[in-house]
Amino acid sequence: MGTRQQQLTPSFSSLLGQEKAKFLLGRALESGKLAHAYLFRGPDGVGKQLFARSLAAAVNCRQRQGMDACGHCPSCRKYSSENHPDFLVISPEKGVIKIDRIREMIQALSYPPYESSVRVVLLEDIHTMRPEAANSLLKTLEEPPDNNLLILTAAAARDVLITISSRCQVVPFFSLGQEETAQILVRELPELDYETARLLARLSEGCPGQALLLYRKEMVAIWREVVALISDPGHDGSRDVGMLLQAAETMAALKEDLLPLLGLLRIWLRDLLFADSLGQEGHESTALGEVARGSKRRCWNFHQLFDKLHAVDRAEKELGRNCSRTLVCEVLLFQLQQ
Hints:
Blueprint: H1 19-31, E1 37-42, H2 48-60, H3 74-80, E2 87-90, H4 99-109, E3 119-123, H5 131-142, E4 148-155, H6 162-165, E5 169-172, H7 178-188, H8 194-203, H9 208-216, H10 219-231, H11 241-252, H12 258-284, H13 287-292, H14 302-320, H15 325-336
Parallel strand pairs: 1-4, 1-5, 2-3, 3-4
Helix pairs in contact: 4-5, 7-8, 8-9, 10-11, 10-12, 11-15, 12-14, 14-15
């Protein structure tokens, strides 16, 4: 079956933020009145899957304390060893959840849990399901077999069929505060200094998972180089074509991680739009301030900045149509440096 299992995640009480999700799920756990299906919906990288795994561990923990799994009982040890027979995870394969994976899951649910009181199935990123897969899931969501709990996750910005969301109890997730995000990053990456953690928190807009991706792919360094290049008042686009082409190649080499980099450029341009109204103190707290502090930069007017934001939007759409990454990056950089 197309499933995977992951290491036991922290207890609910150790997870930062998402107080509404903690309240809703904690109350259901302690009262023993869990819904048959939950839909965790919110931005990417804010903890939906961590919460799902924490809930799965807590549901079958034999020595649960409030809403927290103990981490030591036989069930918890099997979660830790990635060997729990009653916890199934279905994830997109090559960006899609296909119907055969849903059919295999439905077949598995027709049998009772192997050793636990409840089998937990986590379906990640259900917005990637093809229509036929989503329709195949509907009856199971409406009347799941006894002793099965389904947890679905989806990005807030992506469409989910109303027929799916209406059959689940929706638990909303939100972006975290920058300080909370920075604390999570420092905890996950002991080598990271706090100032860099704050910058990553700002650039990820309160999404720790996205911030970790930015760090591990060294996208902040690439972002800094690109911004320095296109905002340098001494740079002449017609004269220094080679520099722009080289930067475009560096961007294109990110492949599937190019979209997050475009997101960073969007944040920077948006900060430029607001810089004048924020004043110097606000300017220093923005992504613009982080990269441009103490240096000269080009001065673009309101309309020019809007044109550049539209250029980033067009680049994203072209990537979605499988256009050449290198060509898309070249065109974008020439438009941004004007």
